[in-house]
């Protein structure tokens, strides 16, 4: 998947020159409204150049008047800020058994969304065709024409080669290995399509919406599988093959020998995922068939269910303790369906992490539950798209009529 807008790679006029409208636009992306004089002072550009660039951005509705600054006399100068309603994004969070699809504005505000049961093991074509159908309907419900769509972001529950958008040997996604996800979706939507691991999207969503000032953090999802998204020095870490953060296939230190789908024994996914907890409860005689029933059982304060979930938390924490010593994050966010069972799971994680990690690494460490109400994945998928498509180069391409949603 090319990360350049069509035509941009061969046109020097679209490059991110300091005087380009795209470069001026970047100064407004921090959310602070500015006047033309502010922009001229900040860039060192002539007032006439700044005014021309502001007019171009206004003409494309990419920025909008925000209000007026105070003035010592005469008419107050107008201020401008990014217009979140200029374009929209389709954001998709695919899990092992569920999907959440949303339409957001450029600020990540969800305008329309749908959550449904959707098994990833159906294969890429039926799953992605369902996504396309729902995305078209949500765009219509939100009042957006496809021409205003600036891009699509997708999180998948397995390793992804980010540069191409192709899954790489995903363990719970039969038929997806090497499938060209962007190419398939472009049959319906001719826009940039960014694909990443679902937990990478989640850590971006939680970071952008809740912890924007945190430079080192992790997001751990425990559901059908177990995975982590890692931000270090404010940068999302993919690893050499897109497999960074695959906690699910790290061996738990307690020596559990439960067989894992990967062929090894005692992997975290095999002993502490939502499916593994359900299996443990069934072994104890509970009539539970899925993770949702397991969560309800724990919420009802059944002592055996609480003990089982807390032990799973300890096993997750035992693996995370090594991550804390190695990466030294300041925040670890716990998400996924298992985390909705309450504080018992979190308590088990904290117990192991704080007892097994070095005191220096845990001195200021916070281990907290997600606060994005299941939306971390779509919020991160939306952020992936806006970070890419609102770059200076892409804004220049859009204004030149050669980029997505140029009309």
UniProtKB/TrEMBL annotation:
Gene3D superfamilies: 3.30.420.40, Winged helix-like DNA-binding domain superfamily/Winged helix DNA-binding domain (1.10.10.10). It comes from the Bacteria. GO terms for molecular function: kinase activity. Keywords: Kinase, Transferase. Signal peptide: none annotated. Pfam families: ROK (PF00480). InterPro entries: ATPase_NBD, ROK, WH-like_DNA-bd_sf, WH_DNA-bd_sf. Belongs to the ROK (NagC/XylR) family. This is Putative NBD/HSP70 family sugar kinase. The lineage of its organism: Bacteria, Bacillati, Actinomycetota, Actinomycetes, Micrococcales.
């Amino acid at each position: 998947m090319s990360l350049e807008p069509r035509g941009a790679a061969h046109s020097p006029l679209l490059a991110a020159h300091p005087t380009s409208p795209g470069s001026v636009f970047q100064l407004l992306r921090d959310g602070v409204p500015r006047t033309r004089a502010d922009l001229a002072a900040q860039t060192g550009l002539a007032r006439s150049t700044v005014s021309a660039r502001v007019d171009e951005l206004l003409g494309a509705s990419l920025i909008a008047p925000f209000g007026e600054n105070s003035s010592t006399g005469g008419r107050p100068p107008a201020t401008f800020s990014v217009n979140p309603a200029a374009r929209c994004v389709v954001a998709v969070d695919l899990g092992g058994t569920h999907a959440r699809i949303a339409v957001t504005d450029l600020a990540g505000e969800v305008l329309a969304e749908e959550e449904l049961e959707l098994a990833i093991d159906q294969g890429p074509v039926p799953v992605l065709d369902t996504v396309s159908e729902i995305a078209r309907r949500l765009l219509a419900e939100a009042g957006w024409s496809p021409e205003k769509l600036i891009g699509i972001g997708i999180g998948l529950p397995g390793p992804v080669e980010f540069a191409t958008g192709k899954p790489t040997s995903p363990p719970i996604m039969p038929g997806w290995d090497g499938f060209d996800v962007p190419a398939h979706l472009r049959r319906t939507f001719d826009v940039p399509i960014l694909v990443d691991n679902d937990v990478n999207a989640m850590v971006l969503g939680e970071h952008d919406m809740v912890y924007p000032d945190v430079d080192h953090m992790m997001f751990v999802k425990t559901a059908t599988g177990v995975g982590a998204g890692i931000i270090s020095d404010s940068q999302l870490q993919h690893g050499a093959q897109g497999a960074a953060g695959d906690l699910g296939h790290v061996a738990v230190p307690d020596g559990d020998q439960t067989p894992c789908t990967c062929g090894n024994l005692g992997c975290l996914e095999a002993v502490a995922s939502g499916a593994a907890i359900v299996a443990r409860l069934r072994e104890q005689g509970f009539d539970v068939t899925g993770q949702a029933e397991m969560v309800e059982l724990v919420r009802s304060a059944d002592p055996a269910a609480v003990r089982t979930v807390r032990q799973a938390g300890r096993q997750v924490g035992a693996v995370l303790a090594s991550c804390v010593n190695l990466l030294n994050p300041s925040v670890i966010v716990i998400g996924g369906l298992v985390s909705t069972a309450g504080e018992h799971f979190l308590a088990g994680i904290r117990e192991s992490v704080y007892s097994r990690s070095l005191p220096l690494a845990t001195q200021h460490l916070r281990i907290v539950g997600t606060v994005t109400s299941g939306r971390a994945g779509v919020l991160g998928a939306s952020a992936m798209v806006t970070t890419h498509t609102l770059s200076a180069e892409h804004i220049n391409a859009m204004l030149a009529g050669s980029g997505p949603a140029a009309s």
